[in-house]
Design brief:
By secondary structure, the protein is of the alpha/beta class. It contains twelve helices and eleven strands. The protein starts with a strand and ends with a strand.
């Protein structure tokens, strides 16, 4: 049984059929929000960034939301393989249950995660932002109007309004939440952000930590990040709210492809679109996108028959060792994704991808 699926938009699919896939073909790598699901991609990330793409001559834009932002930032470290391995271990090793609490408070999780980000990156921000090939872009969601500031009543009310508005149209969600992209100032993104209300901010050593923490700040699980330095004032939340799977205009790439290590085959625009199946379909925007995703039959062999999930924190509760064991087993099994991809690209042969 194979573990890896390769899917692609029309232009990307023809490219793979004719030429296979080489490091010099890659112009962008998106990293989706999805919490612990991203652990299943860790061995694949380590191969991609620590080996296969390490010597790329062309700029490669790494774009991340939520855990995708943490993954892409780790990929820009001088020793990407080591940084990504540490990311997985720290995520699995997290224990937020203290003092007998059934569920940890949002402030506890936010404080712990901010400390983790500082331990990972403190003093290394200039190296991350001067990687010879990789250009980092971190996506966060800035609250507008009622959501401009976090509050006991205004936050729930604001997200109820955002959910209802998003049912009408994705663009209408921009009345409540704005996409903010903290971008490597050396290069512009190679495709436009015209599909949704957006704002670009330079990613610098000064705002690096807060931008990454903001991108990972899941509402109600974590506190928002107020007034990220250099960015418009307001409360900043998880980048997955506006860009769950980064369904962007990859068709606007002048050449080359976008390579997407993803935990599923569909590319869902925003977190509030998860239940809106009609927004899960592929579009012309994905023309130059290649998706690497796990096969459902392989996923069914993992603990619980699924990928690691944020609900596991509640499912296992204070059985932290049980959750950690299940996640470590899933991580070990995920090495198959990396091995199968390596076999595909090292051979240099054409790749017969599925249609997105």
């Amino acid at each position: 049984m194979r573990a890896l699926r390769v899917l692609a938009g029309p232009t990307a699919r023809e490219h793979l059929r004719q030429r296979g896939l080489r490091p010099e073909d890659v112009r962008a790598v998106p990293g989706a929000a999805g919490g612990p699901k991203g652990l299943a991609l860790n061995p694949l990330d380590r191969y991609l960034f620590g080996d296969w793409l390490r010597g790329a001559d062309q700029p490669v834009h790494l774009i991340g939301a939520s855990i995708g932002a943490w993954r892409m930032a780790a990929a820009c470290m001088p020793d990407a393989d080591r940084a990504l391995a540490r990311l997985a271990e720290d995520y699995i090793g997290a224990d937020y249950f203290r003092g007998g609490d059934r569920r940890p408070g949002a402030q506890v999780i936010s404080d712990d995660f901010r400390d983790t980000v500082k331990l990972h990156f403190a003093g290394r921000e200039p190296a991350v932002l001067s990687h010879p090939a990789f250009r980092l872009h971190v996506v966060a969601s800035r609250g507008r109007h009622v959501l401009h500031r976090e509050g006991r009543w205004r936050t729930p009310a604001g997200f109820v309004g955002a959910y209802a508005t998003n049912l009408l149209a994705r663009r209408a969600l921009g009345a409540w939440l704005e996409r903010v992209v903290f971008s490597d100032p050396r290069d512009e993104l190679p495709f436009p952000l015209t599909d949704y209300r957006s704002h670009r901010v330079a990613l610098t050593p000064v705002n690096f930590h807060e931008a990454v923490v903001a991108s990972c700040s899941i509402p109600f699980w974590m506190k928002s990040v107020p007034d990220v330095p250099g960015a418009p004032p307001g409360a900043y939340w998880d980048g997955g709210l506006t860009d769950y799977h980064l369904h962007w205009r990859y068709d606007a790439l002048a050449d080359g492809l976008a390579l997407y290590p993803h935990f599923q085959a569909s590319v869902v625009p925003g977190w509030l679109d998860k239940s809106l199946r009609h927004r899960h379909r592929s579009t012309a925007a994905l023309d130059r996108l290649v998706v690497l995703a796990p096969r459902a039959e392989w996923v069914s062999t993992l603990p619980g028959g699924r990928l690691p999930d944020r609900s596991d924190f509640q499912r296992y509760g204070r059985d932290v060792a049980g959750r950690q064991a299940a996640w470590r087993r899933a991580l070990a099994e995920s090495q198959r994704l990396a091995d199968e991809f390596a076999t595909l690209v090292v051979s240099g042969r054409p790749i017969d991808a599925e249609a997105l």
